[in-house]
Amino acid sequence: MFRIRHGSKDKPQRDWANGGAIADPAEAFDTFIEARTNIGVRTDRLVVVDVDAHREGLETLKGHPPLPATYTVRTPNGGLHLYLRAPAGADLSGGTDKLGQGVDIKTGPKSYVMGVGSTFKGREYLLERDAPVAECPAWLLERLVAAHRKSAEAPKTLGELDTPASIEAATAYLKDAAPAAVEGSGGNEMTFKVACQVKDRGVSEPVCFDLMWEHYNLRCLPEWPADELETVVANAYRYGQVPAGRDNPAAGFCAVELPKPENSRSLSYWVGDEPLDAEIDWLVDETIQRGGIGFLGGKSGAGKTFQLVHLALSGAMQRPFYGRKIEAGFGTYIVAAEGSYSITHRVKAAAVHAFGLDSRAARQLPLKFTKGAIDVMSSAGLEAFIADLRQVDADMRREFGVPLGLVVFDTFGQAFTLRDEDASTEVTRATKIMHSVSQTIGATCLATHHFGHGPERLRGSSALRANADFVIELRKNGEVFLEKCRDAAECRLGWAELPIVQVGTKKDGQPITSCFVRELARPNGTAAAPEDGFTSVQSGRDFEDALAKVPSGEAAAVEAAFKAARSGKPDSRRKAWDRALKKALATAYVLEGGRLYKRGPDIPDMSGF
Q1: What's the alpha-carbon Rg for the chain, to the nearest Å?
Q2: Please, which domain of life does this record's source organism belong to (predicted)?
Q3: Can you tell me whether residue 412 is helix, strand or coil?
Q4: Axis-axis angle for helices 226-239, 187-200 (nearest 10)
């Protein structure tokens, strides 16, 4: 940080670029606490996205993949400075309109931005979001590779090109490993990267085009026209930063002059560079991954739509879902491809009877839905859908303070208008669109779907389950089962019943009814086991002691008190809690609405509610 004349943006008072800036927090505090001066922030180790509102920068930014939540400053003209952390040693270039009209980039030790508290033309730079500076995303780093490293001359080649081995390697990559490009989700950049990978395997530009046209283009959404694909391939050979054939094993046996190593950003990471104990980012703890895709499945009549409404309200209210924590609240967008006429009834039933809201509060939730199916299979339709999701995300953050965290397709078959659910190509294309939406928006995509004749599988192609990160199964006996999860153990989540309640009155005086989900710890009507079988063991006594410390019975607080009272490693305490809770729910306690209750005469019978 360094001083700039008060009211000015371009009159630094110290030699800020050559050692004159202040890096020590204590010194900075002493310097600026009472000084009548503007503050300059040097951008070494930073990438600052400078969005000019007067030049339509906010609209331009919407056309790019979303940036992570990060430290943000509101500029005097209504624009934004979004601070991102650059990797150590990264050689990046900024500039005016770097990301399009009105979106500049400030980066490197020779650039700076105005800090919070500075003024210009009588207006102040204000703190918009007080958050840690997030890491610069990969897509943006790729855009900012220093211009002097993009030589206009084609790089030299390593070894002989277009050998049978190199063509075979490139073909295998395109068929099995190359990620497909999706329009509106960085498809151009993805195709460029794939072309670079093919080039690196030791094929010439014409052969690269032929191989991508034959083995890759059919997987893209939409397919590339021949002339546009040819242009992307040509750019890969012209601007690629490594010689053609770099990854060709035969190149090692040729007498070639190896290029000097470049200080470029690697596309891969050493395992030691990443935390080995990094936590999974869960939407619902140990159940639903944030940014993943999955299915809520069951036979007809199992209550799939009621359950997805229950999940949406659990996220909006940040309440546990079948005892599983929701660390951060989220909003939901439902593509109601069938049954949209009853969505509002189901939301009201759940909000009032399961979550204790009044009718007015039930109308003020971060929950949006469509009235019927929308086109997500065409490129234009998908682009419009993603644009709507971005707007909904911005609206939810502004109105409710939560992001759009869940996008629901109800049902899978109706939303994606599949002609043949047994065709793996159709199913894979639909799940690819779900992945594209989740990666672009940063939300989890969930589709409701029917189970087939075999109770163990979703109806249709096996690619459905294979492509899913999680599958929740609803069984007709009320059991709710985590049938698949890539990052957690499959298990029973609990049971549920669907009480019928009145949500309105028809013109003829007849009631309008709907259902809501009531979570149960065991099948409805199952008697509890005697208490002494539970309290006779130490974990049972510890459980009751913890519950006594939390009069509200909030399950998360009881868990914290239980773990705090026990010794041992965190993992052993977690397992002890899991065993104690399981035993408690099988004996004398019930978990409902995220709270633990002891069975007894004071607990009313809610079966007729």
Answers
A1: 29
A2: Bacteria
A3: helix
A4: 60
d(CA 38, CA 4): 5
- Find out whether 476 and 299 touch, Cβ atoms under 8 Å: yes
Q: Which residue has the higher pLDDT, 98 or 254?
A: 98
State how far the Cα of 367 lies from the Cα of 332, in Å rounded to an integer.
Answer: 5
Say if residues 185 and 65 touch (Cβ distance below 8 Å). Answer: yes
Instruction: Using pLDDT thresholds of 50, 70 and 90, give the confidence band for residue 147.
Output: very low
Distance CA 445, CA 148 (A): 41
Query: Which CB contacts under 8 angstroms, 24+ apart, belong to 217-221?
Result: 219/178, 219/180, 220/180, 220/181, 220/182, 220/187, 220/191, 221/180, 221/181, 221/182, 221/183, 221/187, 221/379, 221/382, 221/429, 221/432, 221/433, 221/436
Predicted TM-score of the model (pTM): 0.47
Q: List, for residues 286-338, the tens digit of each pLDDT value.
A: 999 998 999 998 887 788 899 999 999 999 999 999 999 998 999 999 998 87
pLDDT reported for residue 533: 46
Type of residue found at 533: G
Q: Which amino acid is at 225?
A: P
| Cβ(590)–Cβ(521) below 8 Å | yes
Give the C-alpha separation, 60 to 41, whole Å.
25
Compare 3 and 541 and report the one with higher pLDDT.
3
Read off the tokens for 325. Answer: 């924590």
Lowest-pLDDT choice from 486-495, 517-526, 588-597, 599-608: 599-608
Question: Please, what is the average pLDDT of the chain?
Answer: 80
Q: What angle do CA 349, 344, 495 make, to 5 degrees?
A: 40
Helix (H, G, I), strand (E, B) or coil at 368: strand
Gap between the Cα atoms of 86 and 146, Å rounded: 13
